[in-house]
Structure formats: structure tokens, C-alpha cells
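Re: your question from the hallway

Yes, I did run it. Sequences:
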Amino acid sequence: MEIPYEVTPRRDTGLYNAKLGVWLFLASEVMLFGGLFSAYVFLRVGIQDGVDNPWPWGLNVHKNFVWLGFINTLVLIFSSVGVVFAWVALKERNWRKFQAWMYIVVACSVVFMCIKGVEYNSKLNKHHGIKLMDNSVMEGKIKDKTDQIRFEATEVSFSLQGGIPILLESIDGDFPELTLQVEEGDEEITIASASEFKDWFFDARRQTARDLVEERKRYRGEIAEGKEAPTPVTVSTSATLVSDNPFKVRGNPRKIVAHTDDTINFRDGTKVTGKLTGDDVVFEVHEVDLQLVLPQNQRDALVWEVIDDEQAKKEFFAEQRKVYEEIKEYYDKRGEVIPEKMLRGHMLNLHYVHLGHSDGHHGDDGYGDKEHDGEHEDDKVHRSESKPSAKDADLHSSKDYGLISVPRDKIKFMGNHGPRYGNYYALYFTMTALHGLHVVGGALVLLYFVVFGKRIYLKNPEHLANRVEVGGLFWHFVDLIWIFLFPLMYLL
Amino acid sequence: MADATHDWAHHKKIYTIIGVLLFICTGLTLALGLWAPLDVGPPGPTPGDYVIGLALAGTKASLVAIIFMHLNHEKGLIYKTLVFTFLFFVALMGLTLFAGSDPILEEYDTLETTNGKLIQSVDQ
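Structure:
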């Protein structure tokens, strides 16, 4: 069947159908991204200084990400130019040139997504933050997964009615040899691997469900028979496994209700008994952020107690003083008073601190401020020795930074720079990921045209040119969205 | 087809110029953030910087839409569609204004006094 108006325009609209279709689609896309930009404005403008999580101003904390964003912008602009050149090549009936430009565009999309991957990896795996109980914040890196509770377990109890116990994913190292605690006279069961555990668990769960059905049936029968005090349903719905040799457990704090020196209670009801080996968080401090601490309380902030390094504290306030002088000079010249917003903002209250034997290198994870580091290298700023707790003595020490041990009861929140870290990060990941999906989708469509388009080209080159124009319109829209995302997410 | 004999060299020249302009504008946007002399108003990101940054982004977006997306010589129906899109978009952004009349405020520690005290704190 011949589809009408694929090549020639309709008389009434003056457009071929696909073009009208793609513009209507782009109109709906404007609404989609418009809603997210609207959320951005709402959340950013609505920040209460000193109360809400501060908006991380791009240059202040992600200097290297700004460059990645900049490169990505250039890559997308170049790809946009590439698409129009590919379209022109079709108009000129030059298949080879068309192919070349289209492959360049697709290559640009791959480069774009790779750079995005570097950024995501850095945010999700290489940078963390800890907010202490008084809202002072440390930026840096949680070392060796010490956000998890370290434990040596000898006994574990769990329900036989739900899913596989969290224990299975919490065992650190090889699966231990576990023995089922059974009643006297029963055969002892030994479980020595994860697969054995799963097999046994599913059987036991099925058996428990059957026993419950039987018991309830018996109970209802007794009531029907008119028995005044029917025997209650007594089916054990939990199991306990023990190990002769203590085995290591690492518990994800988000899945733990509470822990003491000898027990961990997981959210799914699993209870592990044994000995706590460590729950302090070993942290590599890069920056201290006191935006959420009142200026008059900053010198007594909890963060200084945790860091326990007078020189680092001095360094922080010296830097604050330096920035304050610059800001004061600006406002003095104009005969104005420094606004409160400025006094509470990141410029005065977020600075690098150096602990341990730092060589001033902040790594290549996108968060480094090498110029800044260089200054302090020259200043021979005192760096304290790392102070991991005795419990964590086996943890690797950092070559670049001093480590500190943060007691868990002083932590209000900790996490990576993922969407949970604050409104900015939630929006950053939502908008850039949605945009990234558009890049992938657009690139696949363009790749389809160049790989499978020859047949249409030979039949009617104008038909393929129209298709490429429509695909190109989408591609330019993707570029257009990024043009706004770059300054909003990285610079302003 | 007539397209094969059309003067496409002229189009290519325009596309190249626009591409270069977009690169320059991107460079300017970056410089606005990185280079202190271009920082408008007080140090750091302030409303002046937002206006310039978004104006540059708006210019770039317009160039892409007008030249690359051929809106400089498009049919009326597309323009009509875009007018409605624009109106809906403005309404969407305007929704945030309603939030001003329904603020969710939490009680929190207020600063003890005004700037005097704050400056004193920094001065310590």
C-alpha cells in the first residue's frame, strides 16, 4: 500500500505528513522537558538558605565536570551541524558524503554518552558526603564500604514466610558452613553454599506454608466440632542457622533497623547474633561545608570535633576570611552591607581542608580543584596523620588524604552524589538521564537511516531526504535541550 | 529533481557560520562562569549571571531552531502549533509562581541578629 504524502506535501497543510507529525511530537516533548525545567525553577528558587540542602554551584564543587559538560555541548553542536550537512548531501544526491556525515553524527552521540558515563560513575561511585547531626557537612569519599556495618556472626534467624533473607547478600567473603538448629531427634542439616541455602530455603518455605494450612484446617475443625478450647496453631515459621566458625557480615545500613554490639536486626526480620567488629565510617575528607550551620556556631561545629585537626580548622577559617575580605571589598565600594544570603552561601562556607599526608592531588574524579591544591602545597599546610579506628585498622590508608573515623551516632545522613543527595542531584539525574535516552533514541534512528536507507535512496532520494530531515529535527531538539541544561546544571 | 541543481553551497556556508557562532556562544557561556572579569555583580552566581547565561543559551537555541530546524521558512501550520506550545510552556513555568502564595515553611533557627553579628563571627 502506498502511504500518501511521504514525499510531496499535502495541499492544505503545505507539509509532508512526517514533518507535521514530528513537530507535533516535539511540541509534546517541550511539555515533557518544560515540566522538568519548571520543577528546577521551583526547587531552586524555593530554597530556604540555611535550612534546605544548599544548591551545589557547579564551579565550586565540580570544576572538572564543567569541562566535561562543555565538551559535551561542543560535541552535540557539531553533531547538529553534521545532520544538516548529511541532509544537504542527500539533496545533492551524494550518498557517500551522506554516509560519512551520518556516521560522524552517530560517533558524536557515542562520545557524548561515554562522557556522561564518566560523570555518572564519578558522582555515584567516587564522591560521597556525610551530614553530621548539627548539619555540618563533609564532602569526600567513604573508604572501603565502611558505610556498612561490619560484623562477625555466629547465629542467624529469619522468617520462612517471606523472600530470601537479606543475610544472603550481606555475607562478606565465602559462604560459611551453617547448621540448622533442629529439635532433638531430628536429622541435622548442613548448608555450605549460597545455592544450597536457596534450595533448602525454598523447600522449607513450601513446607511451612503446607504445615500452616494443615494446622489451620485442624483448628477450624476443632471449632466446628464445638471444642471449647481448641489447641492453638503452633507452626514454627522461622529458622535458626548456626556456624561454629564466626563468619563476616557486612550490613547495608539502609536495610538495618538497629544494631548493637552483639546483634543486627534487618528490615526483613533477619536477626544476626555475634560480635560487632566495626560501625564507624572511615572517611577521606576533601571539603567541609558549613552552609547549614549558623555563622556564630561554626567554630564549635561537630565537624571539627570529628575531624579533630586544629590546623585544618585554621585553614578553613583562613580561607573563609580571605573570601570574606573580597566580598566585603566589593560591597564596601558600593556602600552596601553584605547580604545575609551571601554570608550564608557556599562562597564563604564551603572550603577544602587538608588532612593526612596530602600531596595536594584531588584525583581525577571530576571534583578536583588542582589550582587550589597547588596553593596549599606551597603553603606547606600541616596535614594530620590518618586516624582510622582500631576496629578498622585493616582498612587501606589513603595516599592522598588523611582518613578520619566518623562515629555512626554523629551521622544524620550519608550517601553518594546520587539522586538521594539533594534536589539538585535528583533533578540532575532525572533530566540528564532523560536527555541521554533521547540521544540514544535519536542516534539509533539516524543509524537506521544510514544502514538501511540505500534502498529508499535508490528508489526516491527525496523520500530519504525527508526522513533524514524529520530525524534531524528531533536531533536538533535534543541539542536544544542540552543548550539549556549545560548552563543550568553546570555553571549557574 | 530540482534539488540536485539547487545552490546548496550557500546553505552549507550558512550552516557552517551558525555552527561556528554556536561554538563561540558556548565558549562565552563557559567564560562567564570561569573568568572572573565576566562575572556580573557580586562574586559568585547572582541574578545578573543567570540573565546573561540564559540569554546566551536562548540565543543559541534560537539559532538552532531558526536555521538548523528551518523555522526561518516554514509553513504556517508549524508556526501555529508552536504558538500554542509556547503558551502552554509559559503556563507551565508560571505554575511555580502559584507556589509563592502557598509557602511551606518550617520552623528553624534564625540568625541571632543582623549582619553586624554575622560579620563579627567571621571576624573572629
